[in-house]
């Protein structure tokens, strides 16, 4: 790779000509900043916080969505509501998924300050140590290995702050304090009302060797069933990157600027930087656009943190991607990088529902709150499963799960309530993509998740659903579970084709897409960024968000995103000799 293209200028469209909360008007935007962070989401706000620790460094965050303020006051158990409020979502729809019988599915991404951390399920799950070690091996950078990331994972004053659960119940025996940070920025806590289904789950782990109790599934050794940890404060409120990393003591920094309701359309080559770079263009004559256009310059670096959909979308509209595919759309290629938007990896999930007796005399289960997660399980399918005769195991090692259980009591109010165990296939083999539908940057991209396309995923999902039934077959549940819900009741669990049909009909995305701007070793032609997260063959642009993860973590993605964003911030500071 010889050609180096340098980008330092961003083209921004104010979506509704309203310039949000923090930077008050277009006139307040300087023509240049040291760093411009594109996307005030989970990762972007970490980077903005860390870089602005040096008061001499000017940082601008540009976020397409609006303020998260209205989400802040929402308390348990309604914390999940934002996930269903389209006002805070990009409202994407996938292309038809062959593995799901041709269904197209809604695909939420945060469209608000805090990004997906403002609307997600708040599950805090790091994956296994082997996930990180595999990434280090794949990229050739030992800095991404589990042991070497420890300072970023848990050291005091870094990303994780352990919080007492809202009802202050004793938490001993529910997590391992030695694997957590105590004085970080984002709160992590155990569920309140800890008695909910406690007896049933604990008894199941005692009765069944298949479902061993794990004191802390975030220790690097994730296998087993443990108490769920969530990004919730001691006051029972969501802790997103907007409430934590942009909390009051940070947002008041005079060198940290946040611009809301403004969508970055493309990166412009540095040579296009005009003297008149504060000028505002009217773009209303361009189809699909709204509001004035603005161009702003990064003196040091542009940090793309627009997420696994947004980041490749911006790169492609900037002409960075597969040369031929861009030319076919009428976009002039500026840098041939065929990996952009490719290799999208997403976990399929099925919400399996059983009917429960809510009038049970058991005091533990009567009056359980709705929509409440209490435990999480990370399980393998047997190593001698027939699928491995023909398919190479995608799990990175023997201590990594292949399937996940997370459960939620959906409706305990009526006399027949329901309990669901959501089963995820954690390490799918199928790959999807983010591609462009048109040359208009305000058009949605085409999102193909490749869900359940490979036989490995249908095999593993069948085993996951069977494992969930075995879990509830434990005597611990006898007085509570009535039987499978309608969707499951007609399925013969021994019959693969019937389970396949059930899975195809009911699977949905876990909302954990990664790898669309994946890291790869230095000096290889595949992948999108180098291990230091700089876009290959391009100067002045780094990617810091879920899209750089070359392998999907065997868990959820929020914690890994916080972790990589912390290390990325240090890499950037090191590169620019920022020592504060
Ligand atoms: C509904 C939902 C539930 C989830 N539940 C969980 C969970 O319980 N646990 C878990 O670990 N993970 C969960 N996830 C996944 C997790 O939240 C994400 O993987 C993670 O937050 C992604 O972080 P990110 O920084 O890569 O992107 P995001 O946090 O999505 O940030 C990207 C930001 O960039 C902005 N942006 C995009 N394009 C542009 C542009 N052109 N110009 C300006 N701004 C732009 C977006 O508006 C957004 O604010 C969930 C995700 C969703 C959507
Ligand atoms: C999603 O839909 C809602 C409701 O229609 C809308 O308010 C919001 O702006 C949409 N989000 C995007 C990114 O278009
Ligand atoms: C996808 O990733 C694999 C490595 O995991 C790599 O070999 C391949 O080239 C990538 N595909 C593209 C189109 O970049
Ligand atoms: C896998 O091994 C277990 C225990 O040794 C055995 O009971 C089971 O039949 C084996 N399964 C297959 C598919 O070989
Ligand atoms: C892609 O473009 C076509 C033609 O304009 C349009 O019908 C379709 O809805 C677009 N797809 C998406 C996902 O926006
Ligand atoms: C599995 O179910 C399908 C569809 O109901 C049926 O046609 C098939 O005979 C069943 N297979 C076995 C082995 O029972
Ligand atoms: C990549 O290749 C260039 C040119 O061949 C070389 O100078 C550089 O040291 C290589 N980088 C790494 C990290 O191997």
UniProtKB/TrEMBL annotation:
Molecular functions per Gene Ontology: flavin adenine dinucleotide binding; oxidoreductase activity, acting on CH-OH group of donors
Cofactor: FAD
Record keywords, A-Z: FAD, Flavoprotein, Signal
InterPro entries (UniProt xref): FAD/NAD-bd_sf, GMC_OxRdtase, GMC_OxRdtase_N, GMC_OxRtase_C
Domain Glucose-methanol-choline oxidoreductase N-terminal: 307-321
Signal peptide: 1-20
Binding of FAD, residues: 112, 264
Keyword Ribonucleoprotein belongs to the record: no
Highest taxon of source: Eukaryota
Positions annotated as active site in the UniProt record: 512, 556
Pfam families per record: GMC_oxred_C, GMC_oxred_N
PANTHER family per the UniProt record, alphabetical: CHOLINE DEHYDROGENASE, MITOCHONDRIAL (PTHR11552:SF147), GLUCOSE-METHANOL-CHOLINE GMC OXIDOREDUCTASE (PTHR11552)
Family: Belongs to the GMC oxidoreductase family.
Protein name as it appears in the record: Glucose-methanol-choline oxidoreductase N-terminal domain-containing protein
